[in-house]
Design a protein that fits this description.
six-stranded mixed β-sheet, Immunoglobulin-like, single chain, disordered N terminus, three-stranded antiparallel β-sheet, alpha+beta
Length: 148
């Protein structure tokens, strides 16, 4: 009897993995991803007069303004963070909300705009919840830059 239950356990494990793949919120069969194409990691970047830097990114997720995905599970937006939450907009969980690339990182919200900073992009569902990868970690991209 134990010999016959082993294939059932393997089948249950496979179904569990397939279910986990579907719940990641990415395109069917594709793990959701986001990457920063510029600025390059460990680069120096000149701040504009408004203290903003354009961040270019790529993703395999459909990016739209919050609340406009009409139930599409593979659609959302991106939270841009500078130095975790230390440069967030007032009363918001991000520095800038991205619904297209490029997005401006707003260093005017930082106590010290110049110097070394870490920029993080977090992929979010339409409702603002984090998009998770296959091992339940948030889908993010990160670069460290020196703002001048």
């Amino acid at each position: 009897m134990l010999i016959h239950s082993r294939p059932l356990l393997h089948l249950a494990a496979l179904v569990g993995l397939l279910t986990a793949c579907g719940s990641s919120g990415g395109l069917p069969g594709i793990t959701p991803s986001v990457s920063i194409s510029s600025p390059a990691d460990n680069s120096s970047v000149n701040l504009s007069l408004t203290r903003k830097i354009a961040i270019n990114f790529d993703t395999n997720y459909t990016i739209k303004a919050p609340g406009t995905c009409a139930g599409d599970d593979h659609c959302g937006h991106i939270y841009l963070l500078i130095d975790n939450s230390s440069c967030n907009a007032s009363n918001l969980p991000y520095n800038t909300l991205a619904d297209a690339s490029p997005v401006d990182a707003d260093f005017s919200k930082c106590a010290t705009p110049t110097g070394m900073h870490t920029i993080t992009l977090e992929l979010r569902h339409d409702d603002g919840s984090r998009v998770l990868n296959l091992v339940s970690n948030p889908v993010t991209a990160q670069v460290t830059i020196t703002a001048q």
